[in-house]
Amino acid sequence: TNNAFVWRETTRVVDEWFTEIDNANPTAPGETSVDLLTDLTQVALLVIASAGFGRRVSYKEDLNTDPPPGHKLAFRPAVTSTLHHVLTKAVMPKFLWNLSKHVYLPLITPLLTECRESFASLELHMHEVIASARDLIATGKAETMDSALLRNLVQANMLNDDSDTSKHLTDDDLLSNTFTFLLAGHETSAHSLCFALVLMALYPDVQKLVYEEAYRLWPNGIPSPSSPTPYKESMANLEYTLAVFHETLRLFPPVSRLGKMVQADTTLPARRFKTSAGSKISDVEKYDVAIKAGSFVVIDIRALHYNPIHWGDDAEEFKPTRFIDTDTYRWPRDAFNAFSGGPRSCIGQRFSLTESACILAHVVRKYEVHIPDELKNKPWAEQKSIMLDWTPGITIRPNNAHVLFRRRSP
User: Fold this and answer.
1) What DSSP letter does each residue of 286-340 carry, written as one string?
2) How far is CA 383 from the centre of its chain?
3) Of 318, 364, 405, whose CA–CA distance to 213 is shortest?
4) What is 354-377 written as a DSSP string?
5) What contacts 19, CB < 8 A, 6 or more positions away?
6) Mean pLDDT of the 136-159 span
7) 261 — phi, psi (to 5°)?
8) What distance in Å separates the CA atoms of residue 33 and residue 27, rounded to the nearest whole number?
9) What is the per-residue pLDDT across 75-111, written as a single tens digit (0 to 9) for each?
């Protein structure tokens, strides 16, 4: 995807979000309680829909949930409902899925009916997006499409029968890929951004450093969407902001465990060790683990990210500077697996980092991020426990990502 376009679209969507925030509480200008999970899910969905798939809608327009003609659900409710039912579709036995179409099964039939309608609604929206892309490509206007992801997918689908079949996508491949990129491409970013902003509310010293970095980049206030700062210049000057996001992903990896099929016999070097009450490691012992081809292994990403061998005795602490290289230190790339690793790592990594750095820098440049009023009288440890609570699912989901935005002076 064109990362400069991702930056521009993120700037646009964030500016529209800020307008809604500033208008949300006219009785207390400059101070607004924000439900980060709701708002950032919408922001991230609008960014991936536009930068990835060419569906450009404003934040305010997207608040309208009335379905367009020919649809049962508007786009965002269709996405939200589909995400809600992903696990249902994945684990439901095929015979129950088919039986529920013909026989009423208490609890199961209503659930699967809603599940089918959700997927059908999103499929219809994506067919419209794909059809528009096909028209542009067929008429020789492919280069006018800023949404490189959709363009590449549709072009692979439109390859001639005698083309390289390894690069050809069937219609089913195309649709399933658009579903995957759309659903996975916004939920993971939204949830990680929630944790990042909550952490900055809990750690004002970290937030201050992000603000100072954003202030140096934008001394006169955040730029308007019509004249955003260039992508390369901006990202090059947001080193600490990116470190905050990386550290957030280390502490709260969107996917805690990842399964992999072993393609060839191999031997993995490993280490076992003991830890004391103060997280000091000792008695480190090296050994090898033989793994046969065809085995299924599970990578415990969360355990890797908290491993004191790689991250030090303070691995459980929030410390963004551990992701900034110096003359004498290089952070351990092989011990960071938030985007998986190797040739099958997440292809949306750069998209996510661009979008997230842009959002965090804009938010902290315009607003102070504070603990919500209802938690201010509680001890800090209790505030942290409540605000960083999460529920496991396809990705980990923050449970209490509510903060207070207080507008800064320009």
Assistant:
1) EEEEEE-TT-EEEEEHHHHHT-HHHH-TTTTS--GGGGS--SS----GGG--BTB
2) 24
3) 364
4) HHHHHHHHHHHHHEEEE--GGGTT
5) 59, 60
6) 83
7) -90, 135
8) 12
9) 999 998 988 888 888 888 988 888 888 889 898 899 9
Rg (CA), the chain: 23
- Spatial distance between the Cα atoms of 382 and 384, rounded to a whole number of angstroms: 5
List all residues 6 or more positions away from 294 whose beta carbon is below 8 Å from its beta carbon. Answer: 261, 262
* Tokens linked to 167: 């690069």
Pairing of strands 281-291, 390-391: unpaired
Residue 211: how many other CB atoms lie within 10 Å: 22
- Predicted TM-score (pTM) of the model is 0.90
CA distance 117 to 132: 23
Q: Is the dihedral of CA 401, 354, 246, 272 positive or negative?
A: positive
Lookup: tokens for 138: 């067929």
Q: Which two tokens stand for residue 26?
A: 């006219």
Work out the number of other CB atoms within 10 angstroms of the CB of residue 263.
9
Region 135-141: mean pLDDT is: 87
Beta strands (DSSP E) in 84-169 are none
Residue 139: how many other CB atoms lie within 10 Å: 9
- Rounded distance, CA 294 to CA 332, Å? 29
13-55 pLDDT per residue, tens: 999 999 999 888 766 667 899 999 999 999 999 999 998 888 8
Report, as an integer, the average pLDDT of 297-311: 93
